Amino acid sequence: MVPNYPDALIARILRSVHRIAMVGASPNPARPSYFAMKYLLDKGFEIIPVNPGQAGEEILGQKVYARVADLPAPIDMIDIFRNSAAAGPITDEAIAEKTRLGLKILWMQLGVINEEAAKRAEAAGLTVIMNRCPKIEYGRLSGEIGWYGVNRRVIDNRKHFAFSQGGALRRG
Amino acid sequence: MAEYGFDTLAVHAGAQPDPATGARITPIYQTSAYVFENADQAAALFNLQVFGNIYSRIMNPTVAVLEERIAALENGTAGLAASSGHAAQHLVFHTLMEPGGEFISARQLYGGSVNQFSQAFAKYDWHVRWADATDADSFARVVTDKTRAIFCESIANPGGVISDLEGIARVAEQAGVPFIVDNTLATPWLIRPFEWGAHIVVHSATKFLGGHGNSLAGAIVESGTFDWAKSGKYRTLTEDNPSYHGIRFYETFGDFAFCVAARALSLRDLGPCLAPENAFLTLTGMETLPLRMKRHCENALAIAEWLSHDNRVEWVNYAGLPSHPLHAAHRKYCPKGAGSVFTFGLRGGFGAGMKLVDQVRIFSHLANIGDTRSLIIHPASTTHRQLSDEDRVKAGAGPEVVRLSIGIEDVKDLIADLDQAMQ
């Protein structure tokens, strides 16, 4: 089943997190993970790439770590840019490191759905989002993605000072 | 995500108060280009890595509101506007087709689309095969390994034929190709093709969406449900793209990849962008779409009933009439109404048709449909005159045929006008 989440939940997550570890971040500028990382960095998030093949290198100026266990605390959210099967063991690493990292959110990318892993993560006290892209959700709730004609399914009757702080993501 | 009603979306979807000025109505962003924040952001925009405005051939904030509103009313994932319905079709096929490819289209089609498919597209080496919109098996019979898409109009112009969307969608699914529906005559108020299995909807927004006959506009909407990678036939969407450093559109943009590719490649390179003022006028018209469509359909049914009882009239081709062979299809696909464009046959034939269009005083004799004003045309001598006699009859535009597009005036005045003009 394709999971469904209220806009208010997605907005609350995107407003509250600051440091996001992106597991499966790629140094290839043509890859979707590179696009998402570039966008979220531009929006002021700290993105810490995780990719064993690139450990010690930099992606978009950010140092790459080999695995979740190597990440420096704190990490608010882990974004899994791997396939649904690979999301299982990554989830277990995240659960093991939850307290040390101060981890609150486990997010699986568009097309990534692992119900069993999600159950384990939720039982461990993590909030889980599956089959969504934080870049697209940010663009949708801030209004920016409307510039590409994307149906945001949002009705907005307020004036916002700038799209970057606008839409359902406005703070305060 | 909230589920808003159709009438609420018709007024609000896509729009929000202007972030700079608080203007409640969507401003006409009459600008050709947009300043970049810095060199890095400019590069990221050109690489499609961030969302933003570059140049009005590719995107414009006024046009974007229209795109999102049409996408919302069709319940699709994304929309893309073009300078006309014809331009929208061009962008759709340019994104899907490769030289030597084929697609299947219903032959009950707007005459201009018959020309586009059989003449203009042939110059790209894309080839149309024809089928019958009311007979899904006729599509299945002409599927080949070169078939890349199936196309029909939900309610076909000029005959008001209601297509068997569900049956044709099944053929498309079996063939593994996208099902494209021109929803111009129905509008999403009457039919939402995605609910019947379509993958792409195209519109001439010039017609009922804008509704006032004041602006040319076209649109594409995607359902987000077609798997572009499965067959390997849609290279534009799945292969490394050389003009964007090797990105793959489907992998990168997922369920709105078709519209991004059509925008970032075909619209960018072919150039038929919509002017922001036309988008503004179309948006204003769309706010009253539900009210107008209801009135259009009520008036059309009353006039079709009146014509069907008039002895100067040989036949009336309106699926809203219980005696019509497609009345069951009307009840199935568009129970709220059978649209407001239909044809009827005059006993006097070609000459009587020419005389009628000269005698009307409220109906306007012109080549358009979907206006608040009632419109009349004699297709055989105008919109369909380029076709052969045989093809005209097949397209529902024989010599005795008159096409009406019923407006929202007082229906008694429209009936009186037709009555005096047929004397």
CATH superfamily of chain A: NAD(P)-binding Rossmann-like Domain
Low-confidence stretches of chain A: none
Query: How many beta strands in the DSSP annotation of chain B?
Result: 14
What does the main sheet of chain B amount to?
Answer: 7 strands, mixed
Number of helices of chain A: 5
| Series of H and E elements of chain A | HEHEEEEHEHEH
What coarse outline of chain B follows from CA principal-axis ratios?
A: globular
Q: Please, could you describe this protein's structure?
A:
The complex is a heterodimer of chains A (172) and B (423). Chain A is of the alpha/beta class and 172 residues long. Chain A contains five helices and seven strands. In chain A, β1 (19-23), α2 (32-42) and β2 form a beta-alpha-beta unit. In chain A, α1 (7-16) crosses α5 and α3 packs parallel to α4. The mean pLDDT of chain A is 91. Chain B is α/β, with parallel strands linked by helices. The model of chain B has no long low-confidence stretch (mean pLDDT 95). At the A-B interface, α2 of A face α1, α3, β1 and α11 of B.
Topology of helices and strands:
The complex is a heterodimer of chains A (172) and B (423).
Chain A: H1 7-16, E1 19-23, H2 32-42, E2 46-50, E3 58-59, E4 62-63, E5 77-80, H3 87-101, E6 105-108, H4 115-123, E7 127-129, H5 134-142
Parallel strand pairs in A: 1-2, 1-5, 5-6, 6-7
Antiparallel strand pairs in A: 3-4
Helix pairs in contact in A: 1-5, 3-4
Chain B: H1 6-12, H2 39-46, H3 61-74, E1 78-82, H4 85-96, E2 102-106, H5 111-120, E3 127-131, H6 136-140, E4 147-153, E5 155-156, E6 161-162, H7 165-175, E7 179-182, H8 187-190, E8 200-204, E9 218-222, H9 235-238, H10 249-253, H11 257-270, H12 276-286, H13 289-308, E10 313-317, H14 327-333, E11 341-346, H15 349-359, E12 364-365, E13 375-377, H16 389-394, E14 401-405, H17 411-421
Parallel strand pairs in B: 2-3, 2-4, 4-7, 7-8, 12-13
Antiparallel strand pairs in B: 1-9, 5-6, 8-9, 10-11, 11-14, 13-14
Helix pairs in contact in B: 1-3, 3-12, 4-11
